[in-house]
Amino acid sequence: MAASSETLLNALQWRYATKAFEAGRQIDAATWASLEQSLVLTASSYGLQPWKFLVITDAAIRSELRPHSWNQSQITDCSHLVVLLKKRTITAGDADRLINATATTRGIEASALDGYRQMIQVDLIDGPRSQIISQWAANQVYIALGNLLTSAALLGVDTCAIEGFSPADYDRILGLESDDYQSCVVCACGYRSASDKYASLAKVRYAASDLIEHR
Question: Per residue in 150-197, pLDDT tens?
C-alpha cells in the first residue's frame, strides 16, 4: 500500500502555488471524492477535528467572493474552491461528541474514556489554552490544508493555498456570521493553465542542511 519515496518526492517537486488555472477543466468525481476523504482523515490534536470544509462550485458565489480575495483569478477559475473553517470555540459538547463517537466506533463504554475527556476539559475548555482557542483551532485547520496540498499533488491535481482574502466578508457571504465555524484559509484546486509562467520556475527551497538538525 505504501507509495514509493520517488513517487512522493516527484509529486512534491511537481506541485507549486498555481497562479492560473485552466478555467472550465474539472476534477473528476472519483478524484475529488478522494481529496475530500483526505480532509476527513486529517490528524488533529485530541482527534477533536475542530473544522468544516465548504466546497464552493457555484459560479455565482465564487464571483461574489473574488473581490474579497484580492481579485485573484484562482477563486473563479479553479475546479473546486475549498474554504476551510475553524471552530470558534471548544465546548463541553465538542468533547462529549468526540468521546461518544470514539466509544461507538471502537465498541467500548464512554465511561472508559472519562480520563481522556477530563484531559480535554482541563486543557482546552477550562485551561489557559481556552483563551487562545481560536489560534489553536486555526493551527489544526492548517494541518488539514497541508494534507490536502500533498494529497492533491500525489493525484496530479494542482492547488493554491490562499490567505489573501477577507474572512469577515467570506463569513458574511457564506452565512457564517452567527455560525459555530468561521473562515480560516482557502484552497483553490484544479489544473494549471498552460499560460501560467510560474509552473516552469525552479522551486526555491533552503538546503536540508540549513533546515534539518539531527541530535
Answer: 999 999 999 999 999 999 999 999 999 999 999 999 999 999 999 999
Across 37-54, b (16+ Cβ under 10 Å) vs e yields ebbeebebbbebbbbbbb
Per-position DSSP letters for 99-154, written without gaps between them: HHHHHHHHT--GGGGHHHHHHHIIIIISSGGGGGHHHHHHHHHHHHHHHHHHHHHH
* C-alpha distance from residue 153 to each of 74, 156, 172, 187, 192 (Å): 17, 5, 31, 13, 12
- Let me know: does 189 contact 152? Beta carbons within 8 Å: yes
| Single-letter code of the amino acid located at 58 | D
Amino acid sitting at position 195: S
177 vs 85, 91, 133, 169, 194, CA distance in Å? 12, 19, 18, 9, 38
- Predicted TM-score (pTM) of the model is 0.97
Determine the length of the chain.
215
